[in-house]
Structure formats: structure tokens, C-alpha cells
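Page header: ASSEMBLY MODEL / two components / 945 residues total.
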Amino acid sequence: MSQYEEELVVLLLRDIYGDIAATVVDTLLKYGRLTLQLISRYSKLPLATIQRVLVPLVQNRFVLYWVDENAGSDNATYLASTRNMYNIVRSGMFVSFVLDRFPDTSGAPDIVKNLLLYGHIRASDYLAAQSASQAAVSKSAITLLLQRKLLTTLRRHEFNPQSDLYMRIFKRRLAAIPRSKAVSESKRETQAHSEATEEFSVLKRVHDDINDGLVAAANGIGSSSKRAHSLTGSSPSKTIDESAVLALNHDKFAVHMRAQILRHLVAQRIGKVTAAVYGKVLDCMEPKLFRCVDNTDKAITVTSLEVLRSLDASIELASALAVRSSKKRSRSASSRASKRQKRRHGTDDSAGESDNSMGSSNVSDLESSHRHDDNEDGDDEDADDNFANSSRMEHLNFHLALLSCNQSLPFITKVGNKGGGEWTIDFDVLTARVRELEYDKLITQKQGAIACRLLRIIRDKGRIDEKQLARIALLPPKDIRSQLTALHEIGCLDLQEVPRGTDRAPSRTYYLWYHKPKCAYALMTQAVLKTMVRCYARVIEERGRRPSVMAKLLREDVRLDELNMLTPAEREEVRRVRGVEERFIAHMAKLDNLVLIFRDM
Amino acid sequence: MPSVKAPKAGSSARAASQPYTMPLSPPASSASSSGSMHLLENLSQPAQTMYNKMMNSMPEGHIYTQTELTELVGISDPLRLMGLIQENMNMGLVKMLQQGDDLCYQAIKKEDAEKIQAMTKDEAMVYSYIESSGTEGIWTKTIKAKTNLHQSVVQRCLKSLESKRYIKNIKSVKYPTRKIYMLASLQPSIDVTGGPWFTDSELDTEFISSLLSIVFRYVMSESIPTEDDKALVHPPRSKKTNRKFTKNEKKEEIVYDQLSYPANYSAYPSQTQIHEFVQTSGITTVELAQSDIKALLDVLIYDGKIETIDHGMTYRAILGATADDGTSAEASEYDSIWSYGPFL
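Prediction written out in full:
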């Protein structure tokens, strides 16, 4: 069922790397693992051409190779890796992300662009290809990127397929366990499997080391960014290991994309200021998060102090707290609220370390001058003053409490009290909820609000029949039936038949509707990939309709001065093509967001 | 002495609150003449006295146990008592019921007894079953099964009873194709008519959607702070981006980035509050029970418009949700990122 992903990938390759590369990958995807001879036979291309074209494919790790030492011949087998090829879609976003975080002068965006082009580069080669001053800039940029783990080093084994690596480890472990009468064969195998899984996971995490790709600087020259030090914990006096091979780390990029999605969600559900706070929490956690799905047991915690320190001073935290206007609230409610506030502040003051209240000082005099409404209770004034004058830490805790109070969407959970409060994020729960919300949004757009209401009821109740559904949803059964069948067709719902008698007559069976999330998401992802294929095919088609203009655009002199070198008609054509490209590729980025949520997050 | 007939063994045990009426034994004398006194006249004197006492000493419909009857008429000999009761029963003036394990008796008005005496045996049987179904009503197929009469016989009885206006046909909401019968004087139960959402056995979708939007707007007003609810702390002057000054006004209009109630805010509306609001607002004349409000709130939750706090104690509107008529709970500009357009 990854048919559409394969189509997309072949399309991308055809456009960027050429027809032959696309054909080779197409053959590999169709037939699976092949040796060079077999590729040549099935694709009907000469051997030399294939060898030539495999070079960039292997360099970019689009095609992985494996040489089996036990087999007779020395031939390598090749395997196409759709996951790595899919990352081409994200390349533009990677570059813009780096441009956001690092200024252009630091050389970081250039490194990323070059890596996108070459797949992987040895550090020494890259530095050697530049002038001396440029090299120094690049060196510090590379060190920074390595410390942030946006770049990673490559080991030899990363060019091999994971299944083969695992098999090799397993066979070695199996051979290491001696045969004996006491231990049965299956027990040996299970033990070998568990040991091999452990070793394999260690192998996969070899880049998680803080100083991966870095060595101690000879004379203290290296990345001197204090910020990097506090975030990643590696010493500032580190520089790159010249012999390291560098490549882009898409896993880490996925972590950043996930953080962005979560921030958007907070901004939607709670507010902009809280979203900024949440963004800082995620930033504090980010150095310890190496990939989206990490099956380790230890949870990563962040303290309120850390977040407070990293918060921008200009972000105004306190003005987000609203208190009900005296017109609306009753005396009893307000006195209760004020008493509770007093108690809360009492305990907070004792527990939290009050940091410098830089935000509150210039704010409090404003606050007193702008007091318009008269409060009925004198108590309330005191309580409100307490809050306004209390430290920035308490304002921060207000926002963190907002993030953690919702049980159905727990953005953050409190786990301790050290350092003003320890917080952790349960990504599993959060991811499941984000997927649900996103899926609901999609269904609402595709089918309508009624269908979404039905889906939510079915999700809540498990298995339910039509009549019950109509009763709970307060909708007539006739209307519901068409919606349910439509949802069934797109794979959102499934039917369970419960026969009442021994015969399976339709009138004597109960039909229960239910929703399987994993299945539904997988089908939706396939639909999204199909749309991406169509978008990109359309872009290529539009370009293909104007071959002369597109060819002209590739000329050096035209690229430098488009305004004068093109006729007005050509300029119009270019404008139209660029418009189409922009629209569709931007749309593909949005769809890639969906793929990230449902598949990679 | 004719023995007292015990309730049928085959009938299932009823709850004590619902007395079981068994079909009457055929009256000793043929029922032909009219006149309410005629029935009484057929009774012996002590039986008449007993009947009158039963009718008059307690409010209508009172169910007498055997001990109560003994006290009432002052006859302690159970056999004689039974005899009097049986006489009354033969005339149809007393009905035997079962409450738990005990037998008890109920006096029937003379007019009702007359009615039943005037009917044929079959009609009387059918009528008694319909009567026992109370406000629920009973299905023709059930009547047929219980009386073991032929379909055409049952139909004939039903037709004659209906023409005499003793029973009526109603439409059920759960089973629209079934014919449900009940006594003409009774009102169908909520179960059958479906409750406040149904008018003429059809779901009133407009009524429901208007109620939904009203409830949503109320919850929204109570859970999302507006400009009225001031922030405790105003943004400082240095903040340039979100300020707008209106001319000639000393009071500056400040646009807030975010206004939220604190995490432990407790004044979100609860179900009772919402119920009160709906009732006092006079939107509808229909009586709405708490369970109806709960059903509405559940639908709003399933629409993704509100959510519960404290495991269902109170409700709060979700930021970004819109009511059907377009009023929104602060739909934020982030919504536009997520529209996938016609492509998907």
C-alpha cells in the first residue's frame, strides 16, 4: 500500500536527478533487492550507465547496498529506501528552518544547501574547498550545527539496510551462545534476538552522544557560543573532527517540526502568550530529544527555572490572566475565588524562588493607574494586587498551569517541585490526541460537521448501532445512514455484524459501527500521498508545457538579469509557471505536515 | 365455595409496584342489560356492603390487602370473605391483583365494570391486556400471542373497542411500523413519543439546532473572558504592536494577545446552571428535564465545541469553535494554516 509513496518518490527523482536515476529506482522498487546485473536486465539499461547513476543515489542514501561476506561472489545487492527519498520533500523546509535560526552570514545555510546537493561530505573536503576566511566561518557553523544535532556524522553502517545489519548481529549472537542439551533451540534464538535488539538499538543511537563528531579544540578555538553550552551541555571549546563525514539529520528536523505543530495547537486552544511559553519549554527539552519516537523509559523533565531563564524578556506574561468583571460575578463566587487565590499565592511564595520581577515593576504602576472598575470586595483588590506584584515566576506558573489543567489534552504534566516545578511532556498521549484532532478536522472538511459528530460519538462509545447513534446525536436515522456509508467508503468506519440467529439474514443481524484509528490514519496518509503525487505531477506538466522558456531560464546570463533578457510574453509565462509552482509546492508542504502527524510523529 | 383463582403460573413475576391483573373469570350471569345498579342488585347484601365500603372508605384506586378487607367488613372468617369477594369479582366490580407474593384487591367503578360486562369474552380479554400495559401501550402481535386468539378475532375485537372509543392507536417513535394500542384516556409515555425532541413522531431538527446554539453561546459567554473582564495587568506602554488609540479619548484601547482565566477557575457553568438558564430564558414552552440538557451538552461535546472540566462537573467552550450562526469563540488566525482546500 505504499504505492503512492513510491510513485511520489520516482516523480521527485525524475525531476531532480533525471530519467535514468528514476528508472533505476523504479526497477528497484518493483523488484526489491537486486544486484547490478539484475538491475541492468530488468531496466534494460547498460551496466556502465547504471553504475554511473548509482553513485549519487548511494551518496544520498536513496539506495542502500549490502555485501554479504558469506556469499560466494563479491557482488553487492542494492535496495531502494523510500523513507530517505521522501525526505526530499522536506528539503526546502529544512533550509528555511536553518535560515530562521541562523543568520545567512554564519555559513550555516550554505552548508545545509551543499549537503542537500551532495548527500554527505567529509568535513576536511568541505573546508578545503573554501578560502581560509570562509573556512573559519564554516568551521564554527558546522560545530554549532553538530552540537544542535541538525547535522550528524555518518558511519559506514548507515549505508546498509537495517534488516541486514540486524541479521548479521543476530547470527553473531546466536553463534556465541553455545549449543547445549539444557537450552532448547527456540530459547537460544529468543535470547539471541533480545541481545541482538539491544546491540542494534545501541548502534542506532550512536549519534546521540553529545560530542559526536567533535574533538577538543587544539588551542581553545571553537564554538564560543555560550548559549550552545547551556543548551547542549557540551563544552564550548570543541571543534569538528576533520575526518568526520557529515550529513543532514532528518530525525532531528522532525522533532522541530513536531514542536512547531504543538505550538500552533496551543496557540489555537489556549492563546498566543501561552504558546510562546510552551515553545520555550519545548526548546529547553529539545537537546535531549533525538528523534520523535524514542522507546526509552526515562522521561525528560524541565524545571520552571530553566524556562524562566530562557524566556524572552519582552514577552508579557501577566496580562493574559483575566478576572471576571465585577458586573458579572456574584459576591459569594468572588469571595471564594479571592480566598483561593490568597491561599495559592501563599503556597507559591514559599515554594517558588522568586526571580527578578523585571516584568512586573514597570507594569504594576501602570496597573494601578488604569484601574477603572470598582471591585465589590476589598478582598479581591488585595488578591489581585498580590498577583500583579508577584514575581515573573508566578506569572510563568500561571501559564504552565493552563497548559497542564486540561485532562483530555495534556500539553505538559507536573512531576515534581524542584526548581519551581518540574514538568514533563508525555508525547505518546499528546501525539494520539493531536492525531485525533487533525483527523476530525480532515473529516469535517471532507464530509461535513455531522459526519464528524458521528465519528466522535463512535470513537467514544466503541461499537454502536445506528439507532443508538441517532438517539445520542439527536439526528434522524435517515440522515445518518448516508453519512455513515460515506465514512465507511473512505475507510474511517467499519461494520461489525452480529447475527441474531443462525441464518445471516440482513434483517436479523445487528450492525455495529466502529472506528479503528490506526487503519483510518493509514488510509488517510495514502490519500494524502496520492494528492502529493498529483500536485507534483501538475507542476512538472506546467513546466513541460513551456519547454523553451524553461530552457532559457537555465542560462547563466538570463538568471542574472531576468528583467531584460526575457520578452514581456516570456516574462508573463514565467510568472504564470512560478505562480503554479508556488501554489502546488506550498500545498505539498501542508500535506507533508499531515504525513508528519500521522506517520512520523 | 368457589375457590379463589391464583394468578397464572406461566405469567412472569411482576415488580411489586405494578400490580398484575389477570383476565377475569367469566361472570356467572350473562352480561346483557345496562344500568349500573343492575350489577349491584345481583349481589347479595353483604357483598354489596363490602363493595360500597371498598369504594367509599378509601381514595379511588386503593388496593386492599386481605387483612384490610377483613377489618373493613368485620368478617374474620376467611372462607366467607372469599365468597363475598368472588361474588364481586363475578360481577366485575372487584379486580384481583398480585403484589409481590400477596394477593390484593381493587374496587372498580361501576361504569367500568359495566363496560366490561357489556363486551364479549374476547373483547374483555383484549381490553384487560391493553389496560395492563398502562402508558406504554401494547403491540397487536403481543396481544395475539398472549390471548392465543386468532389474528382475525383480535382484529375484530380491536375494531369494536376502538369504535366504542375505549382504546386508541398511537404511533411509536422507536418502532414506526408497529401498531400500538392503549386506553383512550391515557397519555402516551415519554418513551413512546420520544420526549421533547419529537413533534408528531418526527425529530424536530431545527428546534434542536436552535437550542444547541443557545446553550453554546451561553457556555461561551461564561467561559471565555471578554473585554469586560479586564486583565489584572495591562500590557506595558513599550508594547507597540497591539495597541490602537482612539482619538480624543483618554482611555486607551488595548488589544490583548491573550486573555484566559487561570487554571483553577471554578466558575465555569455546570449542568444545573445551564438548565436554569434555558428555563428562565423562555426560549421554548416545552419542558426540558436535566437529562435533556445533558443530551444537548453531550452533542455539543461531540461537535467539538465544548469540553468538560473536572470529569463532567462543569463545561467550557473550546477556543476556536464556532456556533452554527457564525459567532465564534475567538477563531484564531492559525485556523487558515490548516485548511487543505479542494485538493484532498
